[in-house]
Write a structure and sequence with these properties.
CATH architecture: 3-Layer(aba) Sandwich
Shape: globular
Order of helices and strands: HEEEHEHEHEHEHEHH
CATH superfamily: Alpha/Beta hydrolase fold, catalytic domain
Number of domains: 1
Low-confidence stretches: none
Number of strands: 8
Distance between the termini: 42 Å
Strand content: 15-25%
Radius of gyration: 17 Å
Helix content: 25-40%
Strand order of the largest sheet: 1-2-4-3-5-6-7-8
Mean pLDDT: 94
Largest sheet: 8 strands, mixed
Length: 247
């Protein structure tokens, strides 16, 4: 069965911030970070050789998405172009597939992220979550691994009624170390999603957390590949500098 049209659009998409050298980036693809129930979970490394990285950005795709897609998120142009943009900027990136197939599989996807962190064994990691991928940050923000140096969230769901899946509850309950964070908000996004972001920001400020907030007033959900304008490029450029500063 063919993938839905929106998957084809994601596969053809490209981030709107272009830097020199993106086409020449070294890529190691189709690597395995875990195998569960006979199914191999894949990751791709951009801009470095696997096993030789000291720092890396993990791109955490959203969801829930169907588990039977022919073209998985690691194949989508929007994430490949972001990974290439980071690598061409001198920052190694990893794109991977996780199993956020339904709300019931949220914990499974969280386990996948933890498995990948263990497999990579990198000293300094930045987590960059998109959309529904924000639901996967709750556990990591409640008890943040020493390797996670900073967190980025783009148009992400950051609060949920279930505490385990709420990034806002994660930092509220964190008693040790909340890493520096950058949150990008799309002004034209779904109001209920932006409410989760606003709740997260309020909690982060109450905790006196280091947080940068960038609002794209005319931005759509997925502005980084949908809105070809200067504000999009400004936010993406600032994101690169944030990673350089904190990673």
């Amino acid at each position: 069965m063919a993938d839905p049209e929106w998957v084809g659009m994601a596969a053809r998409a490209h981030c709107k911030y272009i830097v020199p050298g993106m086409d020449a980036v070294e890529v190691h693809s189709q690597l395995t970070y875990t195998t569960r129930d006979g199914v191999r979970q894949r990751y791709d490394v951009y801009g470095a050789a696997p096993g030789r990285m000291s720092e890396v950005v993990l791109l955490v795709h959203g969801g829930p998405i169907p588990g039977d897609l022919q073209t998985t998120p690691a194949d989508w142009g929007l994430f490949q172009s972001l990974a290439r943009m980071l690598a061409a900027s001198g920052i190694a990136a990893v794109m991977f597939n996780h199993r956020f197939f339904s709300l019931e599989s949220t914990s499974t996807a969280m386990n996948d992220i933890e498995d990948l962190l263990s497999q990579l064994a990198v000293q300094r990691v930045c987590l960059w979550a998109f959309s529904g991928g924000g639901s996967l940050l709750g556990r990591l923000l409640r008890s943040t691994p020493a390797s996670v140096r900073c967190v980025i969230a783009y148009y992400a769901a950051l609060h949920a009624s279930a505490s385990e899946f709420s990034a806002a509850d994660g930092i509220e309950r964190n008693t040790c170390r909340v890493p520096p964070m950058l949150v990008a908000r799309a002004g034209l996004d779904m109001p209920q999603l932006n409410e989760t972001i606003d709740r997260f920001i309020a909690v982060a400020l109450k905790k006196n957390t280091t947080i940068d907030v960038m609002n794209h007033a005319t931005g759509q959900h997925g502005f980084d590949f949908r809105d070809d304008n200067e504000r999009t490029r400004e936010i993406l450029a600032r994101t690169v500098e944030f990673v350089r500063t904190h990673l």
